[in-house]
Amino acid sequence: MAFSIGIIGAGEFAEQFVPLFQLHPDISDVAIADLIPERREDYAKRFGIERVFASADEMFNSDLDAVGIFTQRWTHGELAVKALRAGKHVYSAVPMAYSTTEIGQIIAEVRRSGLVYMMGETSYYNPAAIYGRQRQQDGGFGRLFYAEGDYVHDMDHGFYTAFQRGGGENWRGTASYPPMHYPTHSLGGVLSVTQDPITSVSCLGVEDDHPDGIFNRELSIFGNSFSNQTALFQTKSGGAVRINEMRRVGYPTHIRESRFRFFGTEAVFEQTARVSAWQTKHTYEDVSDLLQVRPTAQLTAERAAVFAADVKRVFLGGYSPLHDRSRLPQGYDAIPNGHEGSHHFLAADFVEAVITRTMPSVNAWVAARFTVPGILAHDSSLAGGERLMVPDFGDAPV
Ligand SMILES: NC(=O)c1ccc[n+]([C@@H]2O[C@H](COP(=O)([O-])OP(=O)(O)OC[C@H]3O[C@@H](n4cnc5c(N)ncnc54)[C@H](O)[C@@H]3O)[C@@H](O)[C@H]2O)c1
Fold first, then answer.
1. pLDDT tens digits, 104-147
2. Domain ranges of the chain
3. Which atom of ligand 1 lies closest to the CA of 167?
4. Cβ–Cβ under 8 Å, residues 204 and 227
5. Opening angle at CA 152, ends 151 and 155, nearest 5
6. CA Rg value for the chain
7. Is the minimum distance from the CB of 72 to ligand 1 under 6 angstroms?
8. Quick check: pTM over 0.85?
9. CATH superfamily of this structure's domain 124-291+363-389
10. Is the separation of the CB atoms in 200 and 389 below 8 Å?
11. Rounded to the nearest whole angstrom, what is the distance from the C-alpha of residue 353 to the centroid of ligand 1?
């Protein structure tokens, strides 16, 4: 039976998902909540939303079946726990939470309640991650013993305005969010392929020296002065993973913000901004086209113009040849997609999990494995690279 969902946070990102939930045949109603009246009213008008709430708490007290958390990145854990305790299924933008304590609470609440929790990790449906999973499943890598993931997103690529919007008057104190506390767009893509949990970490942080003075330990509400961090992780099977989380980096983030490399005993798969290759001991195959996301025919220029008027920041991306569009609801083709073709699949996964009461792709246990290692990596960099053990919440129950 169709269910209702309330979106918490009428900000920049949620507008990508409201139309997806509204169009889904298994969603009966989409509501909106924001602490700022103009923002929630703007969403209500633009998307024809009838049920409008003044806060997340007000929404938790309603009869809505599910919530989608699209609030500032440091707020997700507490809201997810409250939502689950209020009996709501939860879709949450990344990261899962700021602390391992909150993550443990989310897992405990999901286990207790049997409700669905899903983290909307966009790199999970990045074509490079899909390609890597296919090659891993068909054994092409041999033993996959080493992988790299980079989330290379410079402050100049939209982060100043994003943090100003989200942090209000104190935005300077929030823009220094520790890079390794946002590790899912790099580590998530890697682990979705290797399925090999992290056991320990040693991480180095680069002290920021940019004249804007944002990454300042005194000013930062997170006490953080690292703008770039590099972590080396050990995995359960004895392999290694290297992760870069960079906020001061000369890289064309608008072309590609998450990049991956996978090294196996039989093959290596490498991705750069424009070129991706599958290589064996004797062959080189350029797979760039396979990984390229292109707008669908349905998303014509005319249609895009309509969306441009309605939606402030248009994601035109459609799908890559690797995306299995057959499992998406009808009509998604004509809605802009974002983050390398992932938005449509994340929305569809969550709805399917609630309807069928099955574990979604990035369930609470998977989300914890994508998030917890970064939290420990940050601790390690504060301790000068000391190697720390990474707690593991285990596999999702069947
Ligand atoms: N690739 C990705 O997965 C990706 C990309 C962009 C953003 N994000 C995530 O999406 C989230 C939202 O980003 P954004 O840029 O839209 O943020 P934003 O600051 O534009 O919007 C957040 C909104 O939430 C509202 N809010 C906060 N607490 C609330 C509460 N208790 N009740 C009701 N409303 C509340 C704020 O008033 C604000 O309008 C962030 O956590 C970010 O990490 C993920």
1. 999 999 999 999 999 999 999 999 999 999 999 999 999 999 99
2. 3-122, 124-291+363-389
3. 19
4. no
5. 120
6. 20
7. yes
8. yes
9. Dihydrodipicolinate Reductase; domain 2 (3.30.360.10)
10. yes
11. 23
